[in-house]
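Retro notes
What went well: the complex prediction finally ran end to end.
Inputs used:
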Amino acid sequence: MGKSRFLGEFEQFVLLAILRLGEQAYGTTIRQILLDVIQRDVSIGALYTTLTRLEDKGLIRSAMGEATAERGGRAKKYFEITAQGKRALQETRQSLDAMWRDVKLSFVGVKQ
Amino acid sequence: MGKSRFLGEFEQFVLLAILRLGEQAYGTTIRQILLDVIQRDVSIGALYTTLTRLEDKGLIRSAMGEATAERGGRAKKYFEITAQGKRALQETRQSLDAMWRDVKLSFVGVKQ
DNA sequence: TAATTAGTTTTACTTTGTAGAATAAATTAC
DNA sequence: GTAATTTATTCTACAAAGTAAAACTAATTA
């Protein structure tokens, strides 16, 4: 249950990472996607803190996976985005788009 | 002097508001643009806190305007974005775009 | 000179971002 | 069969960013 109306900037990236990972979204893979796609190297602890908070707010849900590791390791906790999470993501994006609109014009001297 | 590498979500909106206001960017007008464009109603105190922090980080600069009020009121403090601020804004945007790319496909059932 | 008006600063607290260490549960080597 | 190794999550603690409300400032006008 979140009283805050907006997505934090890192929360946004985590939600997007989960979306693009689909079935394969869990701690390690989410961290890796962030590293691959936007070169953002966050500690795994930092990531889990955010995941926990997103779940508390109802923007994602999780389910423990089978303990089917090939070689050692404990069970994975898979995440997926909720309808509310998608909505939050879209609203944030729309606001950003609205603010960027026309601004481009004033952006002289900086490559877009 | 900012050690944190990323723009906060509200910081981003404030920078964009300043950009689109051009010469006319000061407390009241920035607040109003946020309200008009994205229906975000933030207290004036909250806004100034963020403006101060953005300036400390070198993302914007300010200059006191003449005390040319038509009817009462003190001098305005005008803000403008620095080159560093533009860069930060663009980098944030590029990261967001990169993360959104392809994700659209998995977005079934939600209107874009 | 007291109201009024338009604007900025201060104070205080909540929420979000972040790392590092601790813990957990499985597999394999001896 | 137990000690290492591996893969993963949880806990703890603190810094940074978001936010409102109240205080303050400096003009103008009645």
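What we learned: The beta strands of chain A are 60-64, 77-81.
What to try next: split runs per interface for comparison.
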